[in-house]
């Protein structure tokens, strides 16, 4: 499994989502996912939405995925003015 494949699975599974995924050992990854569908949801519910896009790969091909989940309004791209 690689970071780009995980990014694609998340973006395909959550319409309108943008994902940035890092990880270089093939089983441990970190992701920032920005999606309007997260609006009004607690972090656990947001994470479940992301995990659902990965299915049974979680705990198998993907041993660990550290998530940061934001709505577009919560996300400020690097370099954006305050």
Automatic annotation (TrEMBL):
SUPFAM superfamilies: BolA-like. InterPro entries: BolA, BolA-like_sf, BolA/IbaG_stress_morph_reg. It comes from the Bacteria. This is BolA/IbaG family iron-sulfur metabolism protein. The lineage of its organism: Bacteria, Pseudomonadati, Pseudomonadota, Gammaproteobacteria, Lysobacterales. It holds the Pfam family BolA. Belongs to the BolA/IbaG family.
């Amino acid at each position: 499994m690689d970071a780009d494949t995980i990014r694609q699975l998340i973006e395909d599974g959550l319409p309108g989502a943008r994902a940035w995924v890092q990880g270089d050992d093939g089983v441990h990854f970190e992701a920032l996912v920005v999606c309007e569908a997260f609006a009004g949801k607690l972090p656990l519910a947001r994470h479940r939405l992301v995990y659902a896009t990965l299915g049974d790969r979680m705990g198998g091909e993907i041993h660990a995925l550290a998530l940061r989940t934001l709505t577009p309004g919560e996300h400020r791209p690097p370099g954006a003015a305050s």
